[in-house]
């Protein structure tokens, strides 16, 4: 169950969230909880979350270890800040900052090399869904984004299916739509000779405390990637604790 804070929270606000959140998720032995936080908050949040089991990650990285890339951060910098996860190819990165499948593949290699858990995001736009191109688009994104990924690193890879039209719109994919698409993604992973059954596939897009359990009841939804509802400790804790 992963939260993505996007460009929200100063480091003070982030630390105060973690102080409130950790006691609410207490014993999370049967599931993983993770948060992708702004780069400026990584170090303090990772320090605060130490020992809690809550995984802390970044929202993006550059594929080079270092260099003249103003404004970027690298995998070793994320590791150095005490974090252990990174989101790659979120649709907002693809839409506003030019991330391509080729870049996603390079970022994924860099993340794996540094030992980070990589959450690779894919998803179709509304016009792609309406023109019945969803599967074609996802197939292309998966093939391009996972180019060069080796099956032996399966434990370091998580897929996130986020239909662009469901992000921040209050319009969740129905559990049937999400299930159908995620089953397709698993089939595609198999076709790419990856251990599809053991790679976790998250659903993201307008997940809230009251739809989490229904989505999680679907066989091909292994977890959730939560934007807006991860910004308050109590609502994200409710999602993490679904079914308890
Ligand atoms: P919302 O939950 O706000 O729709 O955002 C989803 C998302 O983009 C998570 O990465």
Spatial ordering of strands, largest sheet:
1-2-3-4-5-6-7-8
Contiguous low-pLDDT stretches (5 residues minimum) are none
Task: Give the number of DSSP strands.
Answer: 8
Count of discrete domains: 1
Helix fraction, binned, reads 25-40%
CATH domain fold name:
TIM Barrel
Proportion of residues in extended strands:
5-15%
- Major β-sheet profile: 8 strands, parallel, barrel
Question: What is the H level of CATH, i.e. the homologous superfamily?
Answer: Aldolase class I
Structural class designation: alpha/beta
Specify the number of helices. Answer: 10
**Radius of gyration over alpha carbons?**
17 Å
Instruction: Give the overall shape.
Output: globular
Q: Average pLDDT value? A: 96
CATH top level class name: Alpha Beta
User: Any ligands, ions or cofactors bound here, and which?
Assistant: 1,3-dihydroxyacetonephosphate
CATH architecture: Alpha-Beta Barrel
């Amino acid at each position: 169950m992963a939260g993505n804070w996007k460009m929200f929270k100063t480091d003070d606000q982030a630390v105060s969230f973690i102080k409130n959140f950790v006691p609410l998720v207490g014993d999370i032995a049967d599931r993983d909880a993770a948060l992708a936080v702004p780069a400026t908050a990584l170090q303090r949040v990772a320090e605060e979350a130490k020992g809690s089991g809550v995984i802390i990650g970044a929202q993006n990285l550059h594929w080079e270890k270092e260099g003249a890339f103003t404004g970027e951060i690298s995998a070793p910098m994320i590791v150095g800040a005490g974090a252990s996860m990174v989101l790659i190819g979120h649709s907002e990165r693809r839409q506003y900052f030019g991330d391509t499948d080729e870049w996603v593949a390079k970022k994924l290699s860099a993340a794996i090399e540094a030992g980070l858990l990589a959450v690779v995001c894919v998803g179709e736009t509304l016009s792609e869904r309406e023109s019945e191109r969803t599967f074609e688009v996802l197939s292309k994104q998966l093939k391009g984004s996972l180019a060069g990924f080796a099956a032996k690193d399966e434990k370091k890879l998580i897929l996130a299916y986020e239909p662009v039209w469901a992000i921040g719109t209050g319009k969740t994919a129905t559990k049937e739509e999400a299930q159908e698409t995620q089953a397709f993604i698993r089939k595609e992973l198999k076709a790419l000779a990856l251990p599809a059954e053991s790679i976790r596939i998250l659903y993201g897009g307008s997940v809230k405390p009251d739809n989490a359990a229904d989505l999680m009841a679907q066989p091909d939804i292994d977890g959730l990637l939560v934007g807006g509802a991860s910004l308050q400790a109590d609502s994200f804790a409710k999602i993490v604790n679904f079914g308890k």
